[in-house]
Amino acid sequence: MQEDINIAYGITTLEQHNEQILKPLEVSNKTILLGNKNERVQSPFEPSKPSIRDTNIRWLVLVLGTLTNFGSFFCYDNPQPLQKYIEEIFQIQTATANLLYSLAILPNVIVPFFGGALIDSIGVRATMFITSLLVLIGQTTVTLGAAMPSFNVMILGRIIFGFGYATLENALLIMLSKWFLRKNMSFAWGFARCGLRTSSALNSVLCPKFYAMKEELYFPFLMGTLLTLISFICVFGVIYLDKKADAETNNSTQANLFEKVLLKDFASLPKMFFFLMIISILGYMSFLGFTINVNSFLVQRFGFETESAGELITIIYLVAGFLSPLMGSIIDIVGKRVVFIFIAVFLALISMFFFIVLADATTLNPNYHVIFGFIGLGLFYSMFSTTIFPSIPLILKPQNVGTALGIMTCLAAIALALYTELIGFIHDQTLLVHSGYFWTQIIHFGVFVVIAIIVIFAYFEDIRGNNGILNKRRKTIEIEKQGLVA
Length: 486
Fold this sequence. Notes:
CATH class: Mainly Alpha
Number of helices: 20
Strand order of the largest sheet: 1-2-3
Helix content: over 70%
Order of helices and strands: HHEEEHHHHHHHHHHHHHHHHHH
CATH architecture: Up-down Bundle
Oligomer: single chain
CATH superfamily: MFS general substrate transporter like domains
Shape: globular
Radius of gyration: 22 Å
Strand content: under 5%
CATH topology: Growth Hormone, Chain: A
Distance between the termini: 43 Å
Largest sheet: 3 strands, antiparallel
Number of strands: 3
């Protein structure tokens, strides 16, 4: 789900993102001056001598780098397919069970203010080590809590896990930029995103099967712990190769891709940014608020067993994962970003309405028509994530991008944490109506109706206040920029 708050704020056109978000670089004799520091280092764009970063070794780094986050993305969604068992074992309601999500999300409120500073201070390699270790410790604590069993210990573990998870993906982005910034950056990040979404999908399929093997709650979490251990081991491989590459080029310093979060700059941002921010926060809030409880939703309302429900949920992630690179390319070629946002929101709106009117079912005859709704949500996710985030650098000055994204991340984390608790509370209070999943769906549907209205206003604001830049093709934007420079 931080994939989904970070992967949920995913980037497909990272060459454009890096160009906008990197601090202004003063280039001279193949050296650059970074930020306010007086230290001059070699430009990441123009190495003075060959590096292993230009060899096939970088593909090994890409695979190992993806694996460093594979375990954390698998474990982040652990509670979703196990929600039924967690509620039964601890005798708690959905609102309480959702604390395993909301408290893991809350570190995202704090991390944007110090995560970038941490990477800048101690380096990306040390940051990957520390955050991966936090993920491992946190997941181990969750496993112990499930074995005891103690819900409070599980909560403690999820909080520790959240602090590592929130920064680990940022560290991966910076590490990949060191190896792919000059070439294939979009492919590298697209490959990583696809791998991490596959991890989330595997969680939905495997965790119910792991539980069925032992019928013990700790066992699925233990399997997740083993995955985080493998990810932790992969970190050492990335660190070794990156340290070797830096030693070859005498370049131990790397530009931080994230600006410091400056609250004083927030009020001066253009109106169009606030439209996109509200659309983004509400869209991910409703989508992720739905997916958090979707396993229980399928079991209680549509008659699926927990294992088969987990397999169906993968449809959302697989559709989104494999279509995201394609959608990013199409949007770059065609433009019309606000139109694509509206199409994505409309697909989600139709999917949520479909779930409202779909007939309930029993275990004797599960309602497989839910597949159509999941395909719609997968299309929404692929289109929404590849449009919203890359639009931000197009409407902001480069020096404001870091502040804007940092504030967006904080507000999104707060909104999602509160929304998951609200949905859980409404579910628990309306159990007699479609097993508690009627009014929750009405709320999800209502949120997307509000988003659709806001998108319409955003479309006209883009034309009026931004010269329609979000509707222009990428090549057109680049040509106009070159004309201004000339």
